[in-house]
Queue: 3 jobs
Job 1
Amino acid sequence: MLDSIAELRERYLAEVASAGDAEALESVRVIALGKKGEVSLKMRELGRMSPDERRTVGPALNALKDELDAAIRARRTALEDAALDERLRAEWLDVTLPGRPRPAGTIHPVSQVMEELTAIFADMGFSVAEGPQVESDWHNFDALNIPPEHPARQEHDTFFMHRAAGDNRPPHVLRTHTSPVQIRAMQAQGAPLRVIAPGRVYRMDMDQTHTPMFHQVEGLAIDRDLSMANLKWVLEEFCRAFFEVDHVELRFRASHFPFTEPSAEVDIRCSWEAGQLKIGEGSSWMEILGSGMVHPHVLRAGGIDPEHWQGFAFGMGIDRIAMLKYGIPDLRAFFESDLRWLRHYGFSALDMPSLAGGLSA
Ligand code: PHE
């Protein structure tokens, strides 16, 4: 009997030592010490032994049980330590290494300027309105007092959408200006009203100062007794904040737009010195926008009664004022997606406009 205990001891100690993981070790434990394990079965045989035999075999079996139990625990701890060491090795991280630079995009000057002017006009109570870029010709022209035979239609170099053969409705157009948003805003909100509408517009035109797609911002205010004086104040406040100068001088030049009466084009006083543009001083004038009092036909098309309401409107080229403010010489580069240009003229995402007076930077 003692011989077979010695044999069990040797065999199980060897199996414990060679168990490669927690699972293998557990199955050795079950086979040796489990309820129906080999050592437990031997324990049960004690009852059938003589007292003498029991006195030697009993302690030997207990000693074997304790020894195996201790060996299994030790082996388990060793396996766990090894696993932890392995993890620490695999997941090792040098927190003193410098960070890897990640390529960061920049905010396009057009997006930046849109945010700036949205913030400035928001300060004056204007909210943002939107309209579709593929526009009905009614919204783009008729509703703005430009009937089909009007010469202004030719001047707009319009892109027309395709119509299926046999469909005789007038084609939709790529909007040639943001003015159709005036109509949509009046229809959606009624009077009184104060909105700006920044967005893309399209004209068949391409040279150093023209691209087939460019950006405008429309402004529209409708109330009981608005006048050109209100228009002038709003535009001056805007220019002061946007160009970040204390003094601006605007020149209203009589002009003509079918959708405003009277109409004015607005120039800003500036100077060019050594290729550097300065706003607010000098002897040059730079045209920056078209404007006027909303024509009664336009109010009516927008569902507003011109007997009780009047308003002013303006339309400004966003790319234009972005070039002026940030000294960007060529319009076409705006839309060429040249990474070197974008990195040079782009803005950091944190370079947010402040409400009072344009940019914080
Ligand atoms: N829509 C005109 C343009 O594109 C600008 C404008 C808007 C003029 C509003 C007067 C009033 O040139």
Job 2
Amino acid sequence: MSALPPTEAVEARAIGAYLGLAVGDALGATVEFMTPREIQATHGVHREILGGGWLRLRKGRVTDDTEMSLALGRALLEQGIEAKAIAEAFSDWMRSRPVDIGHTVRRGLSRYRRTGETEMPPNEYDAGNGACMRTLPIALYTLGVAESEVEAACFLQARITHHHPLSDAATLTVTRLVQEALLGADVLALLARVEALIARHPEFAFRRRRVENPGGYVVETLRAVFQALFDTDDFESALVEVVNRGGDADTTGAILGMIAGALYGHEAIPARWLAALDADTARACREQALALLRRAPWAGAA
Ligand code: MN
Ligand code: MN
């Protein structure tokens, strides 16, 4: 058996993943739905957490990407991997009048309230990025379980609102990228995982042309994330690269942030971004990262 990395190292990367998600969301939200040209004209290179954007956010405020992750994490900590508990947590969050909510998420949660069903029927329009963006708590909570159980947990949370093979594949891949990075994988190991995804779903091939204005389609989202992740070699460069492409920038930022945060660790996140992040959000992210990891089977093996 190969040696497990020290607990402290994995914890540092888990905190990095959660703060990376939040920082990516907060940085990207300022330029969500802008084109790269508009971003350039307004900000030069956008590299500071400022708030604003089409949602007129307070500086340091995060959006649905981080909030739904925190709701999912709370449900996991209270009741484990239970579809009903997770759907209720999402529904409670929707009731809290969130600053933003995706169309597919709203439709799925409205259906849950009407029918009590926790799995959407397969739908060709469900290939948005809304399930993938909130997968981090599953990655932490299932660290160390068999691949088939990670997959089952991913699909269970995803299909509450999104039921599509590309959403499923994207959600599982991002979850596994985070888990491998938490356990110390290097960037080449992550690239191999992405190439395995592309072998099954060629839509995700990301080398053909530069992605600008990535939309909510999870294939576009992940192509932009993979380009930024594999063409840079530190957290700040990767995140600046992806959000300056505009489009669904808070969500590309959130997904890139969770993977790069796990890969490079929280020490790699610029201090000015951590200082700008809403303090209650930052505290919740740190606490949940550790609490979820401590419940994971991995912790028992360490
Ligand atoms: Mn958002
Ligand atoms: Mn978004």
Job 3
Amino acid sequence: MNSFIYDVGTKIYFGKNATDNISTELKKYGKKVLLCYGGGSIKKMGLYDKVISEIKKAGCEVFELSGIEPNPRVDSVREGAKICKEQNIDVLLAVGGGSTLDCTKWIAAAAKVDHDAWDFFSDWADVNEALPVLTVLTLSATGSEMNCGGVISNPETKDKIGRLAKPLLPKASFLDPTLTYSVSAYQTACGCADIISHILEVYFAPNKDMYMLDRFMEGLLKTVIKFAPIAIEKPDDYEARANLMWASSWAINTFVTGGKTHEWSCHPLEHELSAIYDITHGLGLAILTPRFLEYCLSENNVDKYVDFGVNVFDIDKNLPKMEIAKLSIEKLSDFLFNTLGLDDTLTKIGIDETNFEIMAQKACEYDCINGFVKLSPKDVEKIFEMCLE
Ligand code: NZQ
Ligand code: ZN
């Protein structure tokens, strides 16, 4: 394995009433706050009032950007950056799911530059600084609360692009599992599929693994598999919501990637789906992941599937390796489509092969994905086709 630096500088307040600490953190970063949120779920939950009272307690002036969309658009980033510049905003407070958090992070960066926000994605413009960002998470899925990534869509160019940049890392995140009680069964399922995918993108990587991190990832996977159905059945089960919330953060806060150089495979494919069809990220991943695993399986990499099947799904280790590998994919599909109840084909969600060729080329950036198995655009097209039935 490679050497690495592990340095996640996000302070986490975890547990019931974690939001009581917002004012303490806000005070550190200035007087003018831009509160960013989505389509209104935070008002229905009563969280908006709580956040406003914390902002007042901190003695701060509040400005607002509401209506941030799922699969957040670059227009929202532009709008937020304009407010920051006009009002001399000191600090941003994102309240919501991954879309709100991602959008807020890129507003924080766009507020510091003169060029258009989309240049960060089309031209890979430098991200040298950003306004400080604090987050209140209301949906366990993306891990955006504890990482420096953010994914932004541009409906004009039909692009959805994710990028990491150290200055975007939240300074503090408030993680109260009770704030996820109101998440629908569908969004809970999609969030869990996303967490699982984040882990599998790293677990199934081409280079040599660190034993400890592989066992850690298996533990995270077992956690999601155990608690997702409980949260769906009983949305206010604190233990289930708490386990899912903390698992979502640790699946993608760079801890599990320690020592690995690798490229993700299913995420670039999914980003093409949601760029064109505006589907929920986790749903796209749920449909893609079992097909990706099936497509990549070979005698050369079967041992990894055996670990997955035996350690995560308790499949009998004495069975032939190929049988264990295939069973592990079946078990994963059963969990995603029967236990979580997600649609199992692209056809069912109204997507056909019309755009597969261009989507495959864009997912590969016109060359190939150097992930678990090297995938050319033709390979990616085949994986998309497997998702039709
Ligand atoms: O807009 P509101 O009204 O808040 O409603 C949202 C939205 O409709 C709702 N919701 C959120 N919390 C709720 C709630 N409804 C009831 N009660 C609550 N407590 O859920 C819907 C979906 O929200 P969204 O933020 O879009 O979901 P998610 O957290 O899954 O975020 C998805 C976005 O994150 C990106 C995805 O590509 C997608 O754009 N990702 C970000 C990553 C990162 N920053 O590291 C990595 C991921 O792989 C992912 O790509
Ligand atoms: Zn994801």
